[in-house]
Batch of 2 targets.
Target 1
Amino acid sequence: MGVVGRTRPVPDPHQFELFGLVAEPVIPAAEPEPTQFTSRRGPKHKPQGLVYDLQSCFDVINEVMFKRELRQPVIRWSRNRWRYTLGLCDVEKRVITINSALDDARIPEMVVAGVMHHEMLHLYFGITEGPNGGRRFHTPEFRAAERLFPAYVTVEDWLRDNWPLRGRPARKPRPSTGGFLSYLSMMHGGVSTAAAE
Ligand SMILES: [Zn+2]
């Protein structure tokens, strides 16, 4: 399905690269607008998962890390669970797809948030042209911004030590309060829905 870097080995922690990028369009041009996105592509192909809600994750990170500058993209869980790739961002079509294997209560909320932050940075920075005319996604500016995520090091460490998870997924919903995102939102002034509940 046109995924770059899916099985790429991890050379060292500084080059940690489990995030993939969509090389080809994954949805047809006639795809509905984000607000109209429904379960047409199957129950998993939408932002509300069994454990985590990607829309509220996006909302909190957009507010705290991007000053609400990011326009709403299409956000969805992948229909199938991917083996390695954590998330994909189609920058041109503005589609963020997060691996539904992360919709698992064994995955810390901050990890889902960290993956979302990474994909949101792709929307923020867009595609940069490299010295040889190639497309560059993970520029030094991108990497510097990535490190601004409050739990960046913890998330990288957790992924290095635990990902991919084996065994049965834990599908029970998490409470929307008391987690990483509600803490992040609270520290930022508690304006988001997560802190209001
Ligand atoms: Zn990336």
Note: The domain at 3-23+31-196 is CATH 3.30.2010.10 (Zincin-like).
Target 2
Amino acid sequence: MRYECARCSGRTVTTMPLTLPDGRDMTFVTCHVCESNVWVDADGARWTKDQLFAAARK
Ligand SMILES: [Zn+2]
């Protein structure tokens, strides 16, 4: 899967795999252009920080 920035659509991003406590695989995407950070799940849906923290608390 190719990732791009949710804010500026830049393709210069760093991705880091991340597994939540419930076993869900997420990818942390950092944009080099505008420095936005987003989490994307295996289906390509973008998660907010609040959603991520809520899932991590379960
Ligand atoms: Zn960006």
Note: The longest strand covers residues 13-19.
